[in-house]
Design goal:
Structural class: alpha+beta
Oligomer: single chain
Shape: globular
Length: 508
């Protein structure tokens, strides 16, 4: 009669222990003593399993160190799973206890046994109350951390008035002329800049002088001249003459929509086919002045107060100050450690602010011809996408770190307000009269804030209206009756909005 070896007996005993252990795990209302016994049985079963695994692995061709590591890892996984299993059992017991208590309360209230439907209804009501309490608690705690997510009680009226469609690629920048006739200018990655009739949406003029993406467009403060910056490493100054068409009745593209009613019915983008541009639009192909001192992409440009000088910002980490009449380089503003992303000039003083991917923005002061001071501000943790002046003594900066900060020019050691959002912020703009900040986001949203950091509105966006891709820039035009805010993005269109600003502030 064959004799059973020691190893075979140990293996068979381990299998029996594991089998009996698995049968002993039942969903019962055990006491704490039973739970500790269950854990002890599991540990014994684990030891037996480890022994069996070790005996099976003795015949393996793997190195001993590797086998040991594998065994240790499997043991850790098994222990974690056992802990989760025990916690699951405890949770099930608690659920049963709560169900029993709920049923008992129902009997006391009803005076009779509850039917399954009644019990389910009461349980559902209890769950709903718990869910509502959790939501309320979450909202309260979140509002303390990020106050900018709180919506005001004001129901601002934001109406999409007109879409400006004609570019063949994304639109990086837009601007409104400061002289009559008032037109909208757009700068696109399709190597063109276009001028549009605000009232009719018709293209009035197309500029074709650049050989690369047109990254920004700004208009002269008193003359019919435009300044564009391009990926061809140049900035162009060109003159335009436009004749406005006869105004047409404004087609109401959407009912007046409260800005907070932002239900996104569909995220489906438009077809990626080419959009035919306006063929009958007159064009300009030659610049009046070409500025050529940069060694990289010129990402932005702006006019200094008075319009006799311009400043450009480039990926070569420098900003250049040019004389418009002679096109000569006056100053090269160096100091940023990485590529520049934007530049802006003060509306009434000889001040320039430049933004960069090095997480800083710099304030350059040219008010005293003999002293060109510079201040560096490190308030962000990611690329500063834009920094703009307000009519007062403030600078507003936006960043890819999903924050916007408001600074006081008289004391810029720390921001006076911080706006936290849920998406990267692109080129912002501040209204002159109401001092409302318009934030275009990577997530296709456009939000409005006041200078203290309180969110006022969110422009409506759905499958019927609004931007369908990243919003790159915003620009206010408060003197226009029909459209007082413009936005553009990589869905190849610009949009004119009518924002009821008094409604924004009446309930603050």
């Amino acid at each position: 009669m064959p004799v059973e070896s020691g190893s075979s007996a140990a293996a068979r005993q381990a299998k029996q222990k594991r089998k009996s252990h698995s049968l002993s795990i039942r969903r019962t209302n055990s006491t704490e003593q039973e739970r500790s016994g269950l854990q002890r049985d599991m540990l014994e079963g684990q030891s037996s399993d480890n022994l069996e695994s070790f005996m099976r692995m003795e015949d393996s061709k793997l190195p001993l160190s590797l086998r040991s590591n594998l065994l240790d890892l499997f043991s850790q996984i098994e222990r974690e799973f056992e802990n989760l299993y025990i916690e699951n059992l405890e949770l099930r017991r608690e659920i049963e206890t709560l169900n029993d208590r709920l049923a008992a309360e129902g009997q006391t209230f009803e005076g009779a046994d509850l039917a399954k439907g009644a019990l389910k209804t009461k349980a559902s009501h209890s769950t709903s109350q718990l869910s509502q309490k959790l939501k309320t608690t979450y909202k309260a705690s979140t509002s303390k951390i990020v106050s900018s997510f709180k919506a005001t009680t004001s129901r601002a009226v934001c109406q999409l008035v007109r879409e400006y469609v004609g570019h063949r690629d994304g639109i990086w920048d837009l601007s409104v002329t400061r002289t009559q006739p008032v037109v909208l200018g757009t700068a696109s990655a399709d190597h063109t800049a276009m001028l549009w009739s605000i009232e009719t949406g018709k293209c009035l003029l197309k500029y074709l002088g650049h050989q690369g993406s047109v990254n920004s467009i700004k208009f002269h403060p008193t003359e019919q001249m435009a300044l564009t910056a391009s990926g061809d490493q140049t900035a162009h100054i060109w003159r335009y003459m436009v004749q406005l068409p006869t105004p047409q009745p404004v087609a109401d593209m959407s009912q007046q929509t409260p800005c907070e009613d932002d239900v996104d019915f569909s995220d489906k983008d438009e077809a990626d086919g080419e959009v035919d541009g306006p063929n009958d639009c007159p064009s300009v192909r030659i610049a009046t002045t070409t500025l050529r001192s940069h060694q990289g992409v010129v990402i932005a440009a702006d006019w200094l107060v008075g319009g006799k000088q311009v400043v450009t910002a480039s990926w070569d980490r420098a900003a250049n100050l040019y004389d418009v009449e002679t096109s000569e380089l006056v100053h090269s503003l160096t100091g940023h450690d990485q590529e520049l992303t934007h530049c802006c000039t003060h509306p009434t003083q000889r001040l320039v602010v430049t933004s960069s991917r090095d997480t800083t923005f710099r304030l350059w002061d040219f008010r005293d011809p003999s002293i060109h001071s510079v201040n560096v501000f490190q308030g962000h943790t990611d690329t500063v996408t834009s920094a703009v002046f307000t009519v007062g003594d403030n600078v507003v900066s936006g960043s890819d770190d999903r924050t916007v900060k408001v600074w006081d020019l008289k004391n810029m050691r720390s921001p006076i307000a911080t706006i936290r959002t849920d998406s990267a912020v692109n080129r912002i703009s501040v209204s002159v009269n109401q001092r409302i900040i318009a934030l275009p986001h990577d997530n296709r949203q456009v939000r409005l804030f006041d200078m203290s950091g309180v969110r006022l509105a969110r422009l409506p966006r759905s499958n019927r209206q609004g931007h369908r891709r990243m919003v790159c820039c915003s620009a206010w035009c408060e003197d226009n009756i029909s459209c007082n805010l413009f936005t553009c993005g990589f869905d190849r269109q610009a949009i004119g909005w009518n924002i009821n600003i008094p409604a924004l502030l009446q309930e603050k």
